[in-house]
Specification:
The complex is a heterodimer of chains A (360) and B (368). Chain A is built from 13 helices and 11 strands. Chain A is of the alpha/beta class. Chain A has a domain at 2-161 and 192-219 and 323-337: NAD(P)-binding Rossmann-like Domain (Rossmann fold, 3-Layer(aba) Sandwich), CATH 3.40.50. The longest helix of chain A is centred in the middle third of the chain and has 19 residues, at 129-147. Chain A is globular and about 70 Å long. With 368 residues, chain B is an alpha/beta fold. Chain B has 2 domains: 2-133, NAD(P)-binding Rossmann-like Domain (Rossmann fold, 3-Layer(aba) Sandwich); 137-289 and 333-363, Dihydrodipicolinate Reductase, domain 2. Chain B has a 9-stranded mixed sheet, with helices on one face. A 6-stranded parallel sheet of chain B has the order 3-2-1-4-5-6, sandwiched between helices. In chain B, strands 15-16 form a two-stranded antiparallel ribbon. In chain B, helix 5 runs parallel beside helix 6 (113-125), helix 7 (140-150) runs parallel beside helix 10 and helix 10 (192-203) packs across helix 12 (327-343). The longest helix of chain B is centred in the C-terminal third of the chain and has 18 residues, at 302-319. Chain B is globular. Chain B starts with a helix and ends in a 5-residue tail after the last helix. The chains are: A alpha/beta (360), B alpha/beta (368).
Chain lengths: 360, 368
C-alpha cells in the first residue's frame, strides 16, 4: 500500500514517514508545500513532491500511484479549510481509495463534558479559533464525501506527544526557565497519545472495513493526569513537581485593542474593507492608535523572578475531568496501544537530549 | 570609504552567476548599494532560469542577462560572483579565471577539496584573485573573538561549545539543497562550513575529531562533533536544520567566558571568572581598515557583512593585495568537513524502536 502524506514535514507527518520508511510497513510519498520543508525528510532518500495544495492538477499528479492519503496539515483556519476541497478533488482524480484525516479531540472542546463520545454533537461557537476550524473542517470533509467517491476516516487525538512534540519541548523550556505551572495541582486529565500509538491508529484506519465517514477518539491506554505528564520531564530538566508554579485559572479577557485587531483580521471585513470610504478607514486606524497601551514598568520596581505565562488554551486543557473513551477505535479499528505512556515518555526525553536540551 | 573611492578609477565591473535566493536577497542589494556609490557596476547576469536572471537584471540599468557562460570570455569584467549551486562552482570559477576575471565564490568553495584545489591552481596560473564567501569573518564579534584568543586576553582557551541552527528557513527555490547529487552534504556542509571556518580561524586545526549525524540514505539534518586540540583544550559542536538550538557559542578561557549568539554580528557577552557580573552588548570600533592582510572591515549585521566582503575584494583588486578570505581559507574548513564525513557515525536516536534502529544502521551505509 502506498501512502501520500500531506503535512509530511510536521510532527506527526515526519514521524509517520520515518517509521514507515524504516520499518517498511508501508511505502510513503511525502508531499510538502515548500522546498524548505524538505530538510528533515531529506535524511532519507524518498520520492517526495513539492506542490501548492490548492493547485489541483499538480496535486493530482503528486498523488498518482498512491492508495491512501494521510492529511496531517497544520496551519490556521484558512489553511485547514482551504486545503480540503482541492485535496479531496485531487485525491478523487488520482484514484485514492481512502483519506485518513487527522482531526482533533478539541472539536469537543479542551475540557469536554464528562460522557463525551464521538457521537456528542459538535458546534463551532467555542472560545478557541483552532477548535472551531477543526469542527468546520469535519463538516467540510463530510460535504465533500457526500458528492465524492473517496472514502474518509478521521481520528481525534488530544495531547499527541513524542519526539518533536511541542507539548514536550515547551514544557522542557518552561521547566528550564523556571516558568512551568500547573492548575489544580495537576490533577486534571491529560488525554495523551504517544505518537507511535497514533501512527498505529492511522494505519488501522486505512485498512478497517465499514468505517467510511466515521471519526474515532484515540488515546494511550493509561489514565494520565497532567502532573504525571509533567513529572518525568521536570525531573529530566533537574526540577521537581514542587518547583512548579501552582496557579488558578485566570480570567482571560481580551483587551479592546486585541478585539479590534481580531476584527481587522476577520475575513468578511477584509472583503468589504476596500469598499469602505477612505475617511472611515482613517478614523478606524486613528481610533486603534488612540487606544491605551500597557503601562511601562516603574523605574522603582524590583527585578522580577521568572513568572509563568498562563495561556487560555493550557488553562482549559488542565481543567479537563474526562478521559476520552477509545472504545469505538478498539471495536472498529482493532486499536490497542502498543507503547506504554512510560515508554513514550522515555523516548520523548531521549529526543530532548538528542535535540540539545540540557536534560539528565 | 573615501579612500577606497579615491583609489577606484572606474567602477568594478561585476558578473553574477546564479540568481537563487542568496543573489536575490543579498548580492543584488549589496551591488545596488555599491553601484549607487560608484564602486561597482553589475554588467552581466547568468542563470539557467532566464526568468530569474531577468528579475535581477531589471534592478540594474547596465546589466545584461546572458543565455550561457560564454560572456565571461567576451565581456570586459573585473569580478565574477559565483552564486550557483555548489556542483557548478568549479566549472563557473574555472571559466571566469581562465578569462582573466577574479572570482568571489559562494560557500562552500567547492563540492570537494580536490575541486577546490583545482580552482586555486587555476587562480595561481592565471594570477587572479579567488576568494570565498565566508562572510562571518567580517562580523565584528568574530574578529573580536579572534583577538581575545590570539592575544590570550582571558588566558588560554579551556574548552568551547557551539550549538547552532533551527528549522530550515532559507527561501530555497528548488530542492537542490536536499538532493545528495546536487547538495553534496546536509547541515554540516551548508551551515557547518561557516562554523568550521570560524573555529579553524580561531583555534587552528584539531588533532582529533569525532563526528556523528542522522543521515539515513539522504542528507543529515542534525550532526554533532567532538574535537580536541594540540594545546589541550576540547570543543563540541551541535548543528541542526531540524530543531531550534540555543544558537550559542560559548568559549571558556582560563580567566573568563565569552559568549556569542549565532546570527548576531556585533554583540558579545563577557564574564570574568573573578567577578559575579557580566558584560553583554554591542562592540564599538572596528578592526584596522588597512591591515597588512588588506581591507579588513568589521560588519555589524549580516547585510553589512555582504557589503564588507565585496568592498574587501574590490580593495584587493585595486591594490593588488590579498582578500581577507582567499580560497585557501575555504579549503581548510572543506577539508575538515570531508574528515567528518569519512569518520561519520550514526547519531543515537533514542525514540527509534529496536527494529527501526537496525534499519537505520543499514540505510546509513558506511556509518559506524
Amino acid at each position: 500500500m502506498k501512502w501520500a502524506v500531506l503535512g509530511a514535514s510536521g510532527f506527526v507527518g515526519s514521524r509517520f514517514v520515518e517509521k514507515m520508511h524504516l520499518t517498511g510497513e508501508a511505502s510513503v510519498r511525502p508531499i510538502v508545500r515548500g522546498f524548505a520543508s524538505l530538510a528533515r525528510l531529506a535524511r532519507f532518500e524518498l520520492d517526495w513532491r513539492v506542490t501548492d495544495l490548492t493547485d489541483v492538477p499538480k496535486l493530482t499528479q503528486a498523488l498518482q500511484g498512491c492508495d491512501v492519503l494521510l492529511h496531517s496539515i497544520v496551519g490556521d483556519e484558512s489553511v485547514i479549510l482551504g486545503s480540503i476541497p482541492p485535496v479531496y478533488e485531487a485525491a478523487q482524480r488520482a484514484g485514492i481509495r481512502r483519506i485518513v484525516y487527522l482531526s482533533s479531540s478539541s472539536v469537543h472542546g479542551l475540557a469536554p463534558h464528562p460522557s463525551t463520545t464521538e457521537e456528542t454533537p459538535l458546534h463551532d461557537r467555542q472560545p478557541f479559533t483552532y477548535n472551531n476550524a477543526k469542527v468546520r473542517a469535519e463538516k467540510l470533509w463530510a460535504k465533500m464525501r457526500r458528492t465524492g467517491k473517496v472514502e474518509l476516516v478521521g481520528l481525534r487525538p488530544s495531547i499527541v506527544f513524542g519526539p518533536r512534540s511541542r507539548w514536550v519541548s515547551d514544557l522542557a523550556s518552561e521547566a528550564l526557565a523556571g516558568t512551568a505551572y500547573l492548575l489544580r495541582g495537576g490533577h486534571g486529565i491529560c488525554n495523551t497519545i504517544y505518537i507511535d500509538n497514533l501512527l498505529q491508529a492511522i494505519l488501522l484506519a486505512a485498512h478497517a472495513p465499514k468505517i467510511d465517514g466515521r471519526y474515532f477518539l484515540v488515546r494511550d491506554q493509561e489514565k494520565v493526569a497532567w502532573k504525571d505528564f509533567y513529572e518525568p520531564i521536570l525531573e529530566a530538566c533537574g526540577a521537581q513537581l514542587r518547583d512548579v508554579h501552582p496557579v488558578e485559572a485566570p480570567q482571560f479577557r481580551r483587551s479592546s485593542k486585541d478585539r479590534l485587531h481580531r476584527l481587522r483580521a476577520n475575513p468578511l471585513l477584509r472583503i468589504i474593507k476596500p469598499l469602505a470610504p477612505r475617511a472611515a478607514i482613517r478614523m478606524g486606524k486613528a481610533a486603534l492608535e488612540a487606544l491605551p497601551t500597557p503601562p511601562t514598568p516603574s523605574p522603582w520596581a524590583s527585578a522580577e523572578k521568572p513568572r509563568p505565562r498562563v495561556t487560555a488554551e493550557m488553562a482549559a486543557l488542565q481543567l479537563c475531568d474526562w478521559q476520552m473513551p477509545c472504545t469505538e477505535a478498539e471495536k472498529c479499528l482493532g486499536y490497542k496501544p502498543q507503547t506504554t505512556f512510560a515508554e513514550g515518555m522515555d523516548r520523548s526525553i531521549g529526543w530532548l537530549k538528542f535535540a540539545g536540551y540540557p536534560v539528565k | 570609504m573615501k579612500d577606497l573611492a579615491a583609489r577606484a578609477k572606474a567602477p568594478c565591473r561585476v558578473a553574477l552567476l546564479g540568481c537563487g535566493a542568496v543573489s536575490e536577497l543579498y548580492h543584488a542589494p549589496a551591488l545596488q548599494h555599491l553601484e549607487a556609490e560608484g564602486t561597482a557596476q553589475l554588467a552581466a547576469v547568468f542563470d539557467p532560469d532566464a526568468g530569474r536572471a531577468a528579475k535581477i537584471c531589471a534592478q540594474f540599468p547596465n546589466a545584461v542577462a546572458c543565455p550561457d557562460e560564454s560572456f565571461l570570455q567576451k565581456m570586459p569584467l573585473d569580478l565574477a560572483i559565483v552564486a550557483s549551486p555548489v556542483s557548478a562552482h568549479e566549472a563557473h570559477a574555472l571559466r571566469a579565471l581562465e578569462a582573466g576575471v577574479a572570482v568571489l565564490c559562494e560557500k562552500p568553495l567547492a563540492a570537494t577539496t580536490e575541486a577546490g584545489n583545482r580552482m586555486i591552481a587555476a587562480a595561481l596560473k592565471h594570477q587572479r584573485i579567488l576568494a570565498v564567501g565566508l562572510l562571518r569573518r567580517f562580523y565584528s564579534n568574530v574578529q573580536f573573538t579572534r583577538q581575545i584568543i590570539q592575544n590570550k586576553t582571558l588566558g588560554p582557551v579551556v574548552s568551547f561549545s557551539i550549538q547552532e541552527g533551527g528549522p530550515f528557513n532559507w527561501p530555497a527555490r528548488s530542492d537542490f539543497f536536499f538532493r545528495k547529487s546536487t547538495a553534496g552534504g546536509g547541515v554540516l556542509l551548508d551551515l557547518g562550513v561557516h562554523v568550521l571556518d570560524l573555529i579553524v580561524n580561531w583555534f587552528g586545526e584539531p588533532e582529533q575529531l569525532d563526528y556523528a549525524d542522522d543521515a539515513m540514505g539522504g542528507l543529515e539534518a542534525n550532526c554533532r562533533m567532538e574535537l580536541s586540540y594540540p594545546a589541550g583544550f576540547t570543543g563540541t559542536i551541535q548543528l541542526s536544520r531540524d530543531w531550534n538550538t540555543p544558537n550559542l557559542y560559548v568559549i571558556e578561557f582560563e580567566r573568563g567566558t565569552l559568549k556569542l549568539r549565532a546570527g548576531d554580528a556585533e554583540k558579545v557577552e563577557l564574564r570574568l571568572h573573578n567577578s559575579s557580573f557580566s558584560l553583554n552588548g554591542p562592540l564599538q570600533g572596528r578592526a584596522d581598515l588597512h591591515s597588512p592582510e588588506g581591507f579588513m572591515s568589521s560588519a555589524a549585521s549580516f547585510p553589512q557583512a555582504f557589503l564588507a566582503q565585496l568592498r574587501d575584494l574590490i580593495f584587493a583588486l585595486r591594490t593588488g593585495g590579498r582578500p581577507t578570505v582567499p580560497a585557501e581559507e575555504g579549503i581548510r574548513s572543506l577539508r575538515m568537513i570531508e574528515q567528518c564525513y569519512q569518520k561519520r557515525a550514526l547519531l543515537e536516536m533514542p525514540w527509534l524502536t529496536p527494529e527501526e534502529r537496525k534499519s537505520s544502521q543499514v540505510l546509513a551505509g558506511g556509518a559506524r
